[in-house]
């Protein structure tokens, strides 16, 4: 009798304890939500932490704790100190009504602490910020019930009432894994450069990139290469969580008032996005074709290797001018298929530097050609630049210049010869900007074999004027029309070559959208 009584009392205490714990947890969650609605993030975080400590299986408490961890990042003392050093105003730093702005001097340049190293924010990102996102992921991944449903009030979201279910949680998990992967990857590289050095470059209108790289030998090198493996794991987890979330969101009947939803018109776009995420997932292990982009491949694994710092893929600069042909690896460690010099330089050419309101386009340095004097001529060998078009100018006095010709470079060095009259004691050559000229270029080929035809005559006639040239040893030709032509003009072209019957003329038309260069590129004669 007595043992049974003891056992019953013990069970009763367990039940009462569980009920009291549940009541306490529910009360803590309610308090936390009240603080959250009042924008008191510190107290809200404390209540949710207490609730999870009492009852780790409470999924509502875990959801609120994970979200509040992220919201309180901006209130961290380290982050506030970084804002101070970056000259942000102290007022208006509330995440829900942000009004803080950087302060500028009379020249419109931010009053950043001169001693601030750009690497300091990145160190905080890869440590405190990435770690707290990891803690939030621990909270959210503890939600395992497919029936989970949380109704958020307008006072909590600030943008209307909303329902968050298990599928939404999985999508949030995917996004956080992706964000954490990005933080870890970026934080693994070295961005050590002081603001005072950046400021001196701004005062000079544009910093000399090559000089900056020499002054800071660690810049764009390895800072914490060991965390790249973690970044790769996070990206993999992001893909897997997205696949699960996508399937769950598509399967649910009610898409209204949800954090994430796919309506009918979104499904096609989501299908395409899903295919790209699947390709990204596969590319972490092997080279993979990119959907919707023909002949395009990507291999993301090398990006996360400790031996691949950014500096390895930085080309050479002459002051601020990119030296064409200076990329040591045009696949960026095997991440993509080999790019032409033209493609890479065009990408850089889209960048502009905006210093104190002064916009400066990226400039290119073509390198130095090799010059040889041969009997009766000067021979210039130009570096291989893969598809760039250059004008070659000559001068006898460095004052007056004339164009010798226009050359389309390939992946092989281009060679041109300039006759050398004995009356000239010296000549000077330089690359010319041919952006104000109109030219057509292509390759003359044997129609039967496809082999290039050298010494072929290529003549084009526009507005009664004929322009002729001869194909080189590789069949390539460039016809220089000189000054820019008006829009909507027509012309004809004739190609003849020794040993070939005369080819019929063909007509072409230039418009505001298409140039002869594009229409006559690789005509395939």
Question: From the alpha-carbon coordinates, what is the Rg to the nearest angstrom?
Answer: 33 Å
**Strand portion:** 15-25%
Summing up helix and strand content along with how strands pair, one would put the structural category as: alpha+beta
What kind of assembly state do the chains in view correspond to?
A: single chain
Poorly predicted runs of 5 or more residues: 9-20, 503-525
Q: What is the total tally of β strands?
A: 21
Major sheet characteristics = 4 strands, antiparallel
Q: Average pLDDT value?
A: 78
Provide a count of the helices: 13
Share of residues in helices:
25-40%
Global outline: elongated
Give the neighbour order of strands across the main sheet. Answer: 18-17-20-21
End-to-end separation in angstroms reads 108 Å
Describe, in plain words, how this protein is organized in 3D.
This protein has 525 residues and is an alpha+beta fold. It contains 13 helices and 21 strands. It has helices at 2-37, 41-54, 59-71, 77-85, 119-141, 154-157, 166-187, 195-203, 209-215, 228-251, 267-283, 341-349, 516-519; strands at 149-152, 162-165, 288-289, 297-298, 317-318, 321-323, 352-355, 358-361, 363-365, 370-374, 377-382, 389-395, 402-408, 414-419, 428-432, 437-443, 457-462, 465-470, 476-483, 489-496, 506-510. Strands 18-17-20-21 form a four-stranded antiparallel β-sheet, with no helix packed on it. Strands 5-6-9 form a three-stranded mixed β-sheet, covered by helices on one side. A hairpin with a 7-residue loop joins strand 3 and strand 4. Helix 10 runs antiparallel to helix 11 (267-283). It is elongated. The termini are far apart.
């Amino acid at each position: 009798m007595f043992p049974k009584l003891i056992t019953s009392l013990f069970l009763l205490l367990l039940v009462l304890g569980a009920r009291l714990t549940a009541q306490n947890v529910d009360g803590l969650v309610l308090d936390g939500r009240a603080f959250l609605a009042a924008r008191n993030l510190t107290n809200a975080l404390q209540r949710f932490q207490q609730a999870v400590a009492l009852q780790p299986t409470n999924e509502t408490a875990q959801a609120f704790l994970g979200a509040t961890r992220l919201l309180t990042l901006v209130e961290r003392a380290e982050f506030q100190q970084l804002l101070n050093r970056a000259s942000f105003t102290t007022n208006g730093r509330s995440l829900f009504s942000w009004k803080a702005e950087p302060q500028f001097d009379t020249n419109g340049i931010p009053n950043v602490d001169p001693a601030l190293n750009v690497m300091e924010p990145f160190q905080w990102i890869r440590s405190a910020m990435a770690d707290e996102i990891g803690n939030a992921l621990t909270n959210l991944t503890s939600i395992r019930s497919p029936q989970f449903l949380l109704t958020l009030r307008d006072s909590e979201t600030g943008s209307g009432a909303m329902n968050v279910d298990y599928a939404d949680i999985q999508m949030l998990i995917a996004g956080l894994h992706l964000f954490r992967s990005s933080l870890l990857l970026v934080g693994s590289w070295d961005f050590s450069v002081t603001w005072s050095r950046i400021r001196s470059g701004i005062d000079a209108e544009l910093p000399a990139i090559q000089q900056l790289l020499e002054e800071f030998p660690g810049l764009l090198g390895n800072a914490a290469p060991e965390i790249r493996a973690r970044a790769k794991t996070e990206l993999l987890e992001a893909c897997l969580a997205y696949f699960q979330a996508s399937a769950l969101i598509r399967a649910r009947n009610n898409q209204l008032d949800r954090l994430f939803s796919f309506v009918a018109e979104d499904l096609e776009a989501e299908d395409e996005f899903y295919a790209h995420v699947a390709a990204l997932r596969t590319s972490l292990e092997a080279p993979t074709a990119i959907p919707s982009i023909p002949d395009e491949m990507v291999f993301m694994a090398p990006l996360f290797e400790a031996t691949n710092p950014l500096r390895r893929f930085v080309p050479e600069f002459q002051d601020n001018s990119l030296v064409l042909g200076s990329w040591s690896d045009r696949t960026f460690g095997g991440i993509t298929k080999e790019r032409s010099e033209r493609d890479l330089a065009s990408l850089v050419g889209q960048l502009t530097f905006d210093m104190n309101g002064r916009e400066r386009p990226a400039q290119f340095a073509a390198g130095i050609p090799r010059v040889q004097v041969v009997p009766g001529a000067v021979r210039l060998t130009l570096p291989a630049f893969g598809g760039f078009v250059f004008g070659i100018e000559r001068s006898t006095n460095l004052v007056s210049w004339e164009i010798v010709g226009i050359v389309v470079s390939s992946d092989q060095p281009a060679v041109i010869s300039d006759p050398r009259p004995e009356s000239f004691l010296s000549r000077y050559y330089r690359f010319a900007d041919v952006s104000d000229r109109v030219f057509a270029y292509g390759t003359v080929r044997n129609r039967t074999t496809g082999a290039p035809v050298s010494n072929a005559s290529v003549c084009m006639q526009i507005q009664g004027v004929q322009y002729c040239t001869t194909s080189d040893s590789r069949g390539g030709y460039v016809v220089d029309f000189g000054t820019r032509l008006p829009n909507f003009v027509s012309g004809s072209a004739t190609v003849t070559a020794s040993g070939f019957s005369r080819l019929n003329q063909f007509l072409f038309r230039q418009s505001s959208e298409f140039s002869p260069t594009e229409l006559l590129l690789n005509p395939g004669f």
